[in-house]
Fold each of these.
Amino acid sequence: MRLRLLLPVAFLSMIFSAALMANDNGPTVNPGTQIDQQSGLIKADGFSLVLAHCSACHSPSLITQNAMSRERWLQIIRWMQNTQKLWPLGDAEPVILDYLSTWYGPKTSARRPPLAPYLMPRD
Ligand code: HEC
């Protein structure tokens, strides 16, 4: 009798925790932050500029699957401008870089911690 109640509960909690884990690999999003359904981009300051400038040639998923510093984002933008006909971004550039480095910045949790001093090479 007990077991009949317990099994569905255990099953549901397994599904629930699997769903939570599956959700764990995106950028860390503050509670209340919305994702634009169509582009998959986080809706925050600069979102509409990024959508306008960065989804004309390729899927915005090239953005959402990346995690880079502001400097790296700028390098990618320069590379697209030099080789892929991306236009000058003008006043939008700093806003776009703020957005990219804030929401698609390097993932600190994905990095290994620094080596202990005794593991470092000797000079
Ligand atoms: C004029 C066309 C064009 C526009 C507009 C454009 N890109 Fe790209 N981008 C490209 C091309 C072409 C590639 C290479 C695509 C590929 O490898 O499939 C690319 C690749 C990328 C990559 C992957 C680079 C890599 O090394 O893996 C990222 C990230 C990216 N773009 C971000 C952006 C962002 C951010 C913007 C807005 C500022 C933007 N793109 C606007 C043409 C464009």
Note: The chain has a mean pLDDT of 85.
Amino acid sequence: MFIKSLLKKVLSYKLFYFLQKINFIRITYKAFKYDAKRYLKHSNAFFPFNTKGKLLGQIIAEYHAIEKGICMPERRIGFGQKLMSNLIDHCLLFVQNYGTNDENFIHAVKVIAEYDLLHKAYPDKLDSTLEKKIEKFLSNFPYDASSQLQMTREEYLKYNNAPFDKFSQSRHSLRNFSGNVDENILFQAIQLAQTAPSSCNRQPSRVYIINEKEKIAQALALQNGNRGFGHLADKLLIITEDLNYFLSISERNEAYINGGMFSLNLLYALHFYGIGACPLNWCAEQENDMGLRKLCSIPENEIVILLIAIGGIPEKFMLASSPRVHTHTIIKKI
Ligand SMILES: Cc1cc2nc3c(=O)[nH]c(=O)nc-3n(C[C@H](O)[C@H](O)[C@H](O)COP(=O)(O)O)c2cc1C
């Protein structure tokens, strides 16, 4: 503090603030470098599959894509063959290094068995090499097939006014829509989502609502994860955070935390009001991010956190089972 006020006196104000800005840029780069180094080293992106966690992350993402494929409103028999082949390879690599006891591995095997069972009724739909690969794999790990969930609208909304435990367990990502969402009810859901906590109550979350079918299709074409159901959405929500509300470099990730908390509260609020919803990642390349900004007039100072496809809930539909790991797995006592 003393040095700062001394420098202010010795240097002209202009020079002082110039140097301060240079220093801020230096600190900013250092902070992002600190984050980037950790991400490069520990995510699966740069040094793939060299830890148990990296392999499990890959296996879960792959079996989940198969679960989704099974639940699609217009399921394509023979879908995801390359994906299935990769999943089996990753499962075998996992067994080789970490054995067969892991709950995620076991669920992956069950999903492979469900895929196999589904395709048994359509003998010519799978490539014969893949068929043999699946058969050989399952002969070594004879678990029962998993079963994705069949639901009715009534069952899905049964716990909307139940205590939180039941209510929260009844929310599932819906990948099948039928009918429209009332604008007034959507407004109430967004209002309820505003009860989410935010840093110093700064409330930097923003919600864009796209109504126009053509615009929804254009936005979804920039997103990787809505194939097979996105076209059924009645509206598309875009959750952004306004960076103007963040104060220092140490808050560089706060927008994502605030946006994540707001988004979950919004998912619960949508469920409460009987609106079907599926969160859609915005892990977009720069070009796609710029495309969405242009399409929806999202200003530079806002970052996109998540898209949410919403629509009416069909009479009957399927849900991905998306099982959760055992709670002991995620608790670390110190
Ligand atoms: C940040 C985030 C991104 C997601 N992106 C997608 C997506 O692109 N496509 C999709 O179908 N589901 C997506 N989901 C939904 C997850 O697959 C789903 O939440 C998970 O499987 C758990 O299932 P549940 O929501 O039914 O409990 C996303 C979820 C989150 C939290």
Note: Residues 2-42 form one domain.
Amino acid sequence: MRGHVDADALVACTRALVEVDTQNPPGNEQAVLPVVRHLLEPFDPRFEEVEPAPGRASLVATIGTGGGDRPTLIVNGHLDVVPVDGPGWTCDPFAGRLDGDRLYGRGTADMKGGIAAAVEALHALRRAGRQPSCDLAFHLVADEERGGALGTQALVDAGAVRGDACLVPEPTGLAVCVAERGLMVATITVFGRPAHGSEPRRGVSAVEMAAKVVLALHAADFGGPAHPLLGTPTCNVGVIEGGSGHNTVAERCALTVDRRLLPGMTRAEAEAGLRARIDAIDDGDLRYELEVSVYGEASELDAGHGLVDQVQAAMVAALGQPAPVIGMGFTTDARFVRNQAGIPAVVCGPGEVSQAHVHDEWVAVSRLVDAAAVYAELFASFAPATAATRTS
Ligand SMILES: [Zn+2]
């Protein structure tokens, strides 16, 4: 199958997507939809758009009979990219410059290259004289980089996420990712009682109290067994700011913490875990407020699920060997598909995670070609699989 993938066409497709600025914020994914429609038009799709806020559009393109007589495989890819910040870029982030095997530009790895590989897979199948075994529903969505409320979440709310399984071509180095940790960001504001700096024991220092909170939370062991792919939940105190001057006992100090969570852990449990550790601090002067600003739950697919076997079979057919099965420390839109729509999902795409969100982002063209070949094999062989076919 790899010989049927047109690397030049794949580069051109990726470049066409990269050239449209969809930095989020503000997003403006609507601007790239004409390009996406044009790329998919040869396969005669039915298009449906969901636009929950002006300019924040997602596209569902269903290829196949759509008559319900064949299974449906969803390909979920986000069209937004993280902002190009600072002067660190040495090339135009929206030009798609090719240098040897490297294609540079914002979104080449995360994840316009993955989307392009899925589109090129359809062409490769055609050139090989083969057909998809299923309907293919491309969900090309907004807002993944800022939590997905205006993208995949909006599609779920609109009842548009329907299918038997889902492939998310986010950058994993073509490893098969079946589990991802959740994220909770919380701000803990600690309150003190000001006094003159020459007499620190006359007041209550919010900085001193916050220091005790830091020691209670940072890199703490929150108990429970480790997940085989995701390890243990973590807590990083990433930001601290407080006090008004050297000569005043601090009245206020705020900490921002980043918690990474395991599947099955609810927002309430994650918040309660923080409060329990703070409340266990033996100091009657400690007063605080805790506010959660970001929450995305963890998700996973049993590594023994039949979908994983089918992806691995496609790997072997296209590349000669199976890929590592991994978990990832951060969230993708796969969590909406798994947890809310109840559809099995794997994350597997070209590009390295280390290339996502960095200056001079690039993807290897050879890996785009590998991905397109794997996807073509999967599209040609996919059949719904249910329970675990083996123990993981
Ligand atoms: Zn991404």
Note: The chain has a mean pLDDT of 95.
Amino acid sequence: MQTFRPGDDGYAEEIAGFQTSIPTRPAVVVAAENADDVKDAVNYAAEHELHVAVQATGHGLNAGTEGLLISTRRMTGVEIDAEKQTARVEAGVRWGAVIEAAAKHGLAPLSGSSPDVGVVGYTLSGGFGLMARRYGRAADHVQAIDVVTPDGELRTVTPGSELFWALLGGRAGFGVVTALEFGLVPVTELYGGGLYFDAADLPAVLRAWRTWAVTAPDELTTSIAVVALPGLPFLPEPIRGKHVANVRIAYLGEDGDELVKPLRAAAPVLLDTLKRLPYTDSGSIASDPPHPHPYHGTNATVEVLNDAMLAAVVEHATPETVLIIDRLGGELARRRTDGVGWDSAAQFVVRALSVVEDDVDPIRRAHAKLFDALAPWSTGRLLPFLYGAHSAEELATAFPAGDRARLKQLKAKYDPAGRFG
Ligand SMILES: Cc1cc2nc3c(=O)[nH]c(=O)nc-3n(C[C@H](O)[C@H](O)[C@H](O)COP(=O)(O)OP(=O)(O)OC[C@H]3O[C@@H](n4cnc5c(N)ncnc54)[C@H](O)[C@@H]3O)c2cc1C
């Protein structure tokens, strides 16, 4: 196991993550290679009364700690059990590795838009992905969690245990997960991609998408993103440098072209990338940016998407802000994970995301204007899409009110010194 302290060669590379908006300077970084290294790191932190943070990819909340950072990026083991249709992955694994390994057995994981996101951070956050309306969240499929708890013990927890419940949604506050075991689904391909419209057509496109998405079958998972694309040559000419409304589609049925007819008719289509594709290419549907950058984001879940809300979205759809609306419902409304609650009544989540130039406050204010307008219909927030630094009050809204007291009680039991997360 390697360790790094400020000034050491490799220190900056080890703490570097995808999200660069929060400066971080841990006193010591442990580059863990296995569960024993994680145990040693947790025990060392206890002896020295250090705060403990953990990072696989740095896609999420950057570990803005001055204590001890456990870097799990070397823990990359993936095992597929084709008969049981399960995967067992170590803490540093990204979705792309599971997608590739599972595909060899005609299976797929409940991964999200980007294959570069870490499996553990996404799953513990309550992350949901491209097949969510058909199969629910990744957390719904977890069967066992190996975790080093703040007392330095390596435990395996399964559904029914209070620690299992707290970890699935409570994220890093209860220990460092060293491995996850979860179910896979028998999917090898889907109908997916995007329809791109000029953002000037946003009112018509939003209305058509909302009406269409509300009655769509559970086999369809869809979102709409309003984004200013860079004028770079890798982008196809019809959308290069344009402010676009991009409807993203992942459909598990056979009649995709028939299903999307009303959308294709909503406004002139600048670019249509819809086709059948192997699940191994599912990252192409959203084509998330692959390069690290500083960004800040928040979101609100809502039970309806009425015309007043659509008008608020149109008003705040500026080139400085990426707006994304995901259709929820389907299996997301039915399934209950044995983990921290999920707002099953939420039908959509509205997200805002902006690149941070130097000061995050103007971004917070711009986002607040949109979410204030949506406030009468907002029911809460989703943890995976709270990007950057947020107040404790804002973070608390990512947990259903009924679960907050139990989380607090379990936090006091498992991490009495409050050193984790
Ligand atoms: C490009 C992009 C695409 C995304 N797409 C989706 C999507 O489709 N659906 C969705 O729901 N979310 C999505 N997200 C959000 C993503 O799920 C969260 O940001 C998630 O927390 C990232 O996890 P990570 O492991 O990659 O990041 P990390 O920064 O490594 O981890 C994030 C946090 O997870 C916790 N954590 C990580 N590893 C462990 C561990 N071993 N033990 C305990 N806690 C741990 C820590 O609190 C850590 O700060 C996306 C994010 C990005 C940047």
Note: The chain has three domains: 2-71, 78-186+401-414, 189-388.
